[in-house]
Protein: Helix-turn-helix transcriptional regulator
Amino acid sequence: MLLRELREERGLSQFALALQTEVSQRHLSFVETGRANPSPELIGKLADRLELALRERNRLLLAAGHAPVYRETSLDDVELDAVREAARRILKAHEPAPALLVDRRWNVVELNQGVALLAVLVAPHLLEPPVNVMRVSLHPDGLAPHVVNFGQWREHLLARLRRQIAVSLDDELAGLYEEVSSYPGVKGTPAPTGNEAADVLLPMRLRVGDRELEFFSTMTVFGTAADITVAELAIESFFPADAETRKVLEDLA
Structure:
């Protein structure tokens, strides 16, 4: 059942998945209905084709009666000290521009001093741990009233969450989506119409005092992670998208 759900979320037919993993459609049907138990090797092939994250690979193994392969280490464990130190160095090097380290549910793990530029616009209750990036971005007491192109930015963030939920089938992420998508819109901020002039990158246009700053962001992950916790960490870094924003950051530096 889990395999079928993961396959259907990716828009793959049973025939296509069977063909790409070099098994018969009949055998794959038996695997999906629980009439046959796949070997760990077949699960590995299926996981590769479905591009499953480490957590979902463990779930498939457990569903088939096998022991999970990938461990999940607590963020506070001494074994992850080197990972957190590496992240801190990256965050520090990105100053004065904002950058932060988040977990798979968009909770902030580490941040740099540049985030203060954004935090001053956010109500204190949204900055109480655990700070969640999606809540801060979309809540009416957060950045939402200050984002000039909020309609576009909101849809971008919600689409990102929808994709993440489709891949992970994570109930907590689904709950987060239900929460943030129910926040009221910001007065005077039009929703995207679908015919806006396309930017090379979708910027976040932020009104700070009498200035309008413009940022685009990148996401960085640990490419060789063999631990679930590490694999699900990501660094979001904001870069100036125009000369004025670059000048503001230089002044802050």
